[in-house]
Amino acid sequence: MAAFGRIANRVLNLAPNLRPLQRNLHKLNSAKSVPKNYTKYLVLVGGGLTALICTNYLKSERLDAAFRMRKSEDENLLKKLTSRERRFIKFASVEYRGQLYMTPQDFLDSVVEQEPRPRLKRRMLSDQDLQTIKDNTPPLKKGSKMLFRTLRDRGIVSYTEYLFLLSVLTKPISGFRIAFNMFDTDGNQRVEKDEFLVILRILGGTFKQSKVDEETRKLDDYIADDEGLQRKHRIDTTLQIHLFGKKGNQDLNYDGFYKFMDNLQTEVLELEFNEFSKGNVAITENDFAKILLRYTYLNTEEYDAYLERLMDRIKEERGITFDEFRDFCRFLNNLEDFAIAMRMYTLADRAISQSEFSRAVKICTGFSLSKHLIDTVFAIFDDNGDGMLSYREFIAIMKDRVHRGFKVSHWKVLEYDLANDEFIEADSPLFAVWRQRACRRLDHFKDAELFS
């Protein structure tokens, strides 16, 4: 009996010591079930991820298909547009109610740069932005040769105004009066805002080939195109405010019109000149040649031949001042008159001497070019160095310069088609020339062993 009591006491004493063991065994059993729970979770998570990946893949495929369709539509649309329309769309950086606008800086970039400034998307203008633009636009009496560069992005230019401004750049001084008379439809020697807008609509061809009735045309929200170029809004652009005042009730006389056109031409020429002058009072003869040839459709070999010819013939660099550069560009705006004078002067289509060239320029423009400038021109374009210039070739090349690559050229630009191992005519000649010149520069670096 006593022995049985002792055994019972020992069992009771061991019981507390068995509790930790019991807990450990319970944990061990629970641990064995963990992999089963993880497996369930992994299956659920994996299935969800797979479904998500498939959904995103299918969604991306639909987006890619939509993007390819939209890209194809955009490409087909661009093919239907003129070169000026494509360039306007490319450089226009602001938009208001579906209509695209350039800023003053966009316009300057479009005439001197190959590509527009980098941007993520077009800036959407609000009514407050338009009011700010209106307040910041100076009147015509405060216009200057820095107008567009001062306004920069604080202004808007419509597509039809873009066409007008391009035409201003190619007008000779003698054509300023003709241009003014075109706007002055009632012949009172003053241009009103409504007269100006009528001519702009004619320039843009807003209502051409549109099959709508006259009542629809008169609606303020009538849309004449699908590209956002000429949508009709009752808003005042920077050009309208500058020329006709903030209320639009100021008439434009010839002196003000002349001043505006002359200032714009000078501003663009200064921009081109300063690009090469780097702050100096003159550019090199080589830079002068590059400016003249930058918009032409010459292939790489022809372009290099002109520059090499100039470098071989100019023994001492004196430079070309801005006044000389401006005089020559103004002469180029009289290129049609020069061509007529040459055809009358040289009936046998023979080459002309420097004195004959100088006299013809004087007759067409009313001013003379400097002797050094004429020497430089002949050094560039005199093919065989005999002191005579083939004026037909000179005129053909300079026409491309005057129209800044927009006018159809008689030159054919060929590209190498690798697939068919042949040369074909380029679809976009101006772009092809730019690409060739970029490759030429890379070849120059390669030849200089800068990459070795």
TrEMBL record:
Span of domain EF-hand: 171-206, 369-404
Compartments, as annotated in UniProt: Mitochondrion inner membrane; Mitochondrion intermembrane space
Pfam families in alphabetical order: EF-hand_7
InterPro entries documented for this protein: EF-hand-dom_pair (IPR011992), EF_Hand_1_Ca_BS (IPR018247), EF_hand_dom (IPR002048), MICU1/2/3 (IPR039800)
GO biological process: calcium import into the mitochondrion; mitochondrial calcium ion homeostasis
SUPFAM superfamilies according to UniProt: EF-hand
This protein's UniProt keywords: Calcium, Membrane, Mitochondrion, Mitochondrion inner membrane, Repeat, Transit peptide
Top-level taxon of origin: Eukaryota
Any single Gene Ontology cellular-component annotation: uniplex complex
A GO molecular-function descriptor: calcium ion binding
Protein name according to UniProt: EF-hand domain-containing family member A2
Species of origin: Bactrocera dorsalis (Oriental fruit fly)
